[in-house]
Give the backbone structure.
Amino acid sequence: MADVIIVGAGLAGLAAAHEAVKRGRHVVMVDQEGRQSLGGQAFWSLGGLFMVDTPEQRRMGIRDSHALALQDWMGSAGFDRPEDANPRAWAEGYLDYAAGPMRAELAEIGMRWFPVVGWAERGGALADGHGNSVPRFHITWGAGEGIVAPFVRLALAAEAAGRLEFRFRHKVTGLSVTGGRVTGITGDVLAGDDARRGASTNRTVTGPFEIAGDTVILTTGGIGGDHAQVRAQWPAGRLGPAPATMVSGVPDYVDGQMARVAKAAGADAINEDRMWHYCEGLKNWEPIWPNHGIRILPGPSSVWLDALGQRMEPPCLPGFDTLATLKRILSTGHDHSWFVLTQKIIEKEFALSGSEQNPDLVSGRWSQVLKERLGKGATAAVEAFKDKGEDFVVAADLETLVQGMNALTPHAPLDPGHIRAQIAARDAQIDNPFAKDAQVIAIRQARAYRGDRFIRTAKPHKILDPANGPLIAVRLNILTRKSLGGLHTDLHSRVLRPDGTPFDGLFAAGEVAGFGGGGYHGYNALEGTFLGGCIFSGRAAGRAV
């Protein structure tokens, strides 16, 4: 019999296991995938963490504070439901952590951060509305691998000491409930499978299993790999109709199964209509999981056109307001949009999410970053997508470029004259150091931050000037990613029943709990808060059991 059973061997589960083992608890960790997938989705991330008032920020001349971060978070979250009491309390707790012990605790177990702090999700409207007022996106050396590695090392040490047991290829299908208390788990043992990390694995059942435990912690992620579930929970009244086609930002095992099991057993879930999907998805030319999508993390300079060829208005600019842009794209009746840019922009501004797309950051070596980011051409990963990806069009002139765009989306033909007129008007704003075009102003504002000027934002230039070419168009797809709602938990990570009482013996952390409380982001995320939320909520659960 285990003291603690953790279902899900991702980042939140590993963080919970670390804390529970430190408290002398004997932990059994169960996962339907193999040992090769230890670390879960976090392994594939860029490794960004939302932290506040750090040495990295101060060295970059950024003045951040708990008060400013709180204003940004609450302006973005827009909490407006009675059930948001616990999510709001979790948000306040995370901000205390992010502005307090977070960095020191993670540094103690071996994490280090890239010195240039990223400015994600800039908002672009009012000071007390959505968005980060300052750069807060701290990229971990090693990217997602660098986030996962310290926790894996701790878990393997606990395993070697006999304090942690792994049960891989164990698919949980039920919770054992005795007298209203969760007392264990049941499920199926799956046949072994040595498929590479992230790839689909078999679901061949070799027999049943049952494990008894004092407490169970669910850390099994969201629903982004199951598009039918995403569409079923899609908030059409708020974002518009669910896309008919999407690409997957997560492996297919991210299917929400354990949330359904918990709800069937009597657990409460809230805010399941709140979700976070990206607008800048590419179809991976070298896929690992089914329908594998990769996100562009754009700088601010690409011209963003909707599917009808209309330049989108603020705050629907690259990197500013994800969900406002998602709603704007879907308002056209189509699922795609377009970036139009130059070679100079792609070289300076394009980055791709994912550890496998950023070997320089994974290397942890500054010399590799300088070579990759400041050398001739875009990064090798971006150039590979430009050369091999089906979403890219490259041409010497605009008319040829639009012909290529129309070949990709013949159901939504574009007018080259209309596109030329819009870009020419934008280009005319480059002649002076001042302008009325909001995007041109935003580009110059970005370059006022030396981190953006150094590595993320191209010098303002005319897109139609052949000297800056060739021209590049990128078809952008909706990319599924995160659930912002989930199992309702109190501040001790205890799962609640619909009447608000604790479901004895059951805890939850990470995305399955909306990263804490059943939705600590509210309606919008500020980025770096997904991995940070997994660590924070897993830490809380491990300290509570």
In short: The chain has two domains: 2-24+39-221+484-544, 277-479. The longest helix spans residues 143-160. The longest strand covers residues 205-218.
